[in-house]
Known about the structure:
alpha+beta, 5-stranded antiparallel β-sheet, 5 helices, 229 residues, 6-stranded mixed β-barrel
Amino acid sequence: xSYKVPVGISNKxxxxxxxxxxxxxxxxxxxxxxxxxxxxxxYAAHEQVDIIGPKGSFKNxxxxxxxxxxxxxxxxxxxxxxLGIEPPVRESGKxxxxxxxxxxxxxxxVELESGVIVALRHIHLSPEQAKEAGLxxxxxxxxxxxxxxxxxxxxxxIRSGEGHFRELHIDTDEANAAGAANGDEAEILYPGQRLLxxxxxxxxxxxxxxxxxxxxxxxxxxxxxxxxx
Length: 229
């Protein structure tokens, strides 16, 4: 079995809350879409902000719309070093214990106490696409990118549900490591090719039977046979 997804490379960007948008651009301001993204309803906005860290800064960082409940800044590890911060590698929205940063817009500034992450690499799939791939939301898979420097990425999170569409999201550091470009092909690796860990941290392991997992303490004839070969 083979299931392939296109690569989408995420440069540093900002998601704003309604309150942050009003502070940075003025009360009642609305984002203006610049370019529709692959994920349904999401877009790159015309609006940009400067992000300022303890060590360095970046100007004209793109805002991704629509607005969100919490302001979130996504950077690569290289970006983080330039800014002088150490953000955790996290799933989007998991902002607890993350560092803050200063955002500067045309009408004001926002000093975030937290909200900066390095995004955990992930694959978006609609429910129908997840079913085709034999996967579920929150699965972790290995993915091979067929770029100029072919590379296998481990622990790629599956994000499936309404509002998701088939696309692998990696940041610029990861893309450069693989020599990948937007639209390149990435392949999910299946048993014999890949490791599937459903419910990370719950004691489940990949099985020799396609699309199956089992307890790490359970006896499994296919796995025992594979280990003896």
